[in-house]
Design a protein that fits this description.
20 helices; about 30% helix; single chain; alpha/beta; about 725 residues; 31 strands; GIY-YIG endonuclease; about 25% strand; globular; 6-stranded parallel beta sheet
Length: about 725
């Protein structure tokens, strides 16, 4: 009897395992009803407890054959979504990222299923076409509608109103009279395809040589990692555009990763100039409807080129054949919350798994990429000169010990004189300070109390434009008190240190007639605001730009001839192993904004450490000597890229539970040759978003499988429900 029942079950249903976009490490077994057309990669609806959730069929058979439930206890898949299945390459990538980053596969899958509404077929769009005779009473407005639909039809009511310049009531009247009839259009609109053969600006001899090499690699090698290492303004973008064109000729999809939305706007203009159409966008500021449309267009192949932030890497591309990572060195590619990963490194893995090429581009490549070039893993192509007659800016250090600013000010007289000359010559200047707000610290002159965030071990930053004190870690915001909350002394709170808002005050004192603009992530925080700010600068409606790192890279302003770095030493403090490298990259990028057209440029670095290797490298332009020195220092200490680091961040609202869990992890820490575990110790930011934090750091040799060892380490400790252990493989932040 049992055998007969099993036979009937096999005839009607098939066992599969479904991975859910939840923090779960394993897939769950379900059965596929006989009448359902579903296979590996299908997006499905499945029962989970007393609710129904979305998931992906990860394979046939059981996820755990040794402990599989009986056939008769399986629950059926309840539905299959009308969307293209998740490609094999995406599923393999999800598995790989989960293993490498020590995360549950379901948590990684959630990033690939970030738009649940995209799984449902969109509703058809209601449109109208001419269906009957003209109305008895004709007007000029009605005539314009009829003329429009004689030329283009069908159109939605909104399109008719806009293109015919009529009100909605005119359209409704024509519908009521029978002149216009309803028609339903598919919601899956076509996306214009970029034209790889479109005429474009000729490349220089050096650009053409590299572009031809990239195209040849794509045709003959298949998978390769190529690094375009070119000075600022050398035209790296135009070079990798030729590789994009080759991918389009081969009917492949292309992904271009940019670290910040602010870089996208000028890049889009250059892309459209080269290919005639804009690419598909993907970033966090997109509206929900646009995200839904673009996700589906990527999945079914209508989106041929996607440009986006790091999350674009997890879209379900059906024909991906090339990835470009621009500004590959940029720290913004590191995801610090949820699943912690570096988008550049994951992109390299994505290309290797699917065996297609990837291109990295930067004026200041990371030490990791340069070492891979040195060891023959990456191909390297260098552009050492700017396009046309533009030359690299002259860089000089202003020794703040011998040329200090006036008391209460932050600009050296040397830098003030340089700005004066630019204003006289009707040229633009950029004053760079990588510190948002008015001041990074507010303290009481009476008792010394410092205003801190109640949820983080961090000072509150004054934002005088908004009249608020804000935490830049958790977002807590409050009005500045009139009296010290510690000693009740009134009028004793004083701002310490400069931010860009305070710098604007000083600019107003020295140059009251100059047109100044502050550009920071809290003053231009929407794409439209960024676009307007860039337009104003390019149209020379601004004389003086005061900006943070949002303006430091990727932008081209022909009239900008002076960059003044207000605090060039800022990034050298804090004990970060990459401090010198990151500071050199940032100073090189921001200095590169000067003199990108016919007018010569100059960069001036205000520093108290003019003899520091970073400052000397900037002044001399000898990047290679600086890189060699930095590499040797890391090699001696066994630090990345010559060694591996894995950080464990233990956090929770109960400090005692956090400490106990951290101590348990320390007691079972791996004790092997070539492995060293440091900690546990309170994190520099001991309290973050209301959670206490302790850290452990595992240091290994480069050839050790650090991810696998971390997996085994974590498996030995039962973590309480109110404690979280986040794993950061290859950490960039040590706070």
């Amino acid at each position: 009897m049992a055998e007969a029942q099993a036979s009937i079950w096999e005839d009607r249903r098939q066992r599969c395992h479904v991975l859910l976009p939840l923090p779960l490490g394993t897939a769950y077994d379900y059965s596929i009803p006989a009448e359902m057309a579903a296979g590996v990669g299908s997006f499905v609806r499945v029962p989970l407890g007393n609710r129904v959730v979305n998931g992906v069929i990860w394979g046939f058979g059981s996820a755990d054959p040794e402990n599989a439930v009986g056939d008769n206890r399986l629950r059926d898949i309840t539905g299959c979504h009308p969307v293209a299945p998740m490609p094999d390459g995406t599923r393999e990538f999800v598995d790989w990222v989960a293993r490498y980053t020590c995360n549950d596969r379901g948590a990684v899958l959630r990033m690939a299923m970030s738009v649940p509404t995209a799984l449902e077929a969109p509703k058809p769009r209601l449109a109208f076409e001419l269906a009957g005779p003209p109305p008895d009473r004709m007007t000029k407005a009605r005539g314009r509608v009829i003329d429009l639909l004689n030329e283009r039809s069908p159109l939605t009511a909104a399109e008719i109103s806009q293109d015919a310049n009529v009100g909605a009531s005119v359209v409704r009247g024509l519908i009521a009279s029978g002149t216009l009839g309803e028609v339903y259009l598919s919601a899956e609109t076509d996306y214009p395809k970029p034209d790889p053969e479109r005429q474009h600006h000729p490349l220089s001899a050096d650009q053409r040589e590299i572009a031809d090499a990239l195209v040849k690699n794509m045709r003959e090698i298949g998978h390769s990692v190529s690094l375009i290492d070119g000075v600022t303004g050398a035209g790296k973008t135009e070079v990798y555009f030729e590789a994009i064109a080759e991918a389009l000729r081969g009917n492949q999809q292309v992904l271009v990763l940019l670290p910040e939305i602010s870089l996208t706007l000028q890049w889009l203009g250059r892309f459209k100039d080269r290919f005639g159409e804009a690419p598909v966008l993907w970033h966090s500021e997109m509206k929900a409807a646009e995200r839904r449309r673009n996700w589906r267009a990527v999945a079914d192949g209508r989106a041929r080129v996607v440009v986006g932030a790091r999350s674009a890497l997890f879209l379900p591309y059906c024909e991906l054949g090339l990835i470009v990572v621009d500004e590959e060195h940029d720290r913004a590619f590191k995801q610090e919350d949820g699943v912690i990963y570096h988008a550049r490194d994951m992109a390299v893995a994505r290309a290797a798994l699917a065996k297609f090429p990837i291109i990295l581009a930067s004026a200041t490549p990371s030490l990791e990429s340069l070492l891979n070039v040195e060891r023959g893993r990456y191909l390297s192509y260098r552009l050492t000169e700017r396009i046309g007659i533009a030359e690299l800016p002259d860089i000089q250090a202003i020794d703040m010990r011998t040329a200090p600013p006036l008391r209460g000010e932050w600009l050296s007289p040397v830098l003030i004189d340089a700005v004066d000359r630019r204003l006289e010559n009707q040229q633009q200047s950029l004053l760079f300070l990588n510190r948002r707000g008015y001041a990074p610290l507010t303290l009481c002159r009476t008792c010394g109390h410092r205003l801190e965030c109640p949820h983080c071990s961090a000072w509150l930053v004054e934002h005088r434009f908004h009249g608020r004190l804000q935490c830049h870690h958790c977002g807590f915001s409050t009005r500045q008190p009139e009296a010290c909350p510690e000693c009740d002394s009134e009028g004793s709170l004083v701002a310490c240190g400069p931010g860009v808002e305070r710098l604007l005050e000083e600019v107003g004192v020295h140059w009251p007639d100059a047109r100044a603009m502050v550009i920071a992530s809290d003053t231009v925080y929407k794409p439209a605001m960024v676009a307007e700010a860039i337009r104003r600068i390019k149209d020379h409606e601004v004389d003086l730009i005061i900006g943070t790192q949002i303006i430091a890279k990727g932008h081209h302003f022909p009239q900008l001839t002076l960059v003044g770095v207000v605090d060039a030493d800022l990034g050298l403090n804090g004990g970060d192993l990459r401090a010198s490298e990151l500071t050199f990259q940032l100073l090189s990028q921001v200095s590169g904004r000067a003199g990108r057209a016919e007018l010569p440029g100059q960069a001036m670095l205000q520093t108290h450490m003019p003899d520091h290797p970073v400052m000397q490298a900037m002044i001399s332009g000898d990047r290679d000597t600086f890189i060699a020195r930095e590499q040797e220092a890391r090699r001696v200490q066994g630090l990345p890229p010559f060694g591996r680091l894995v950080a464990l961040i233990v956090s929770g609202p109960d400090e005692g539970a956090v400490v106990e869990t951290a101590n348990q992890l320390a007691r079972v820490a791996p004790r092997q040759e070539r492995i060293q575990v440091l900690g546990p110790a309170p994190a520099p930011l001991t309290l973050l978003r209301g959670r206490f934090r302790h850290r452990l750091l595992m240091k290994t040799a480069r050839n050790v499988d650090a991810s696998n060892i971390a997996h085994q380490w974590l498996a030995q400790v039962q973590v309480p429900n109110n404690v979280r252990v986040a794993v950061d493989v290859d950490p960039y932040s040590f706070l």
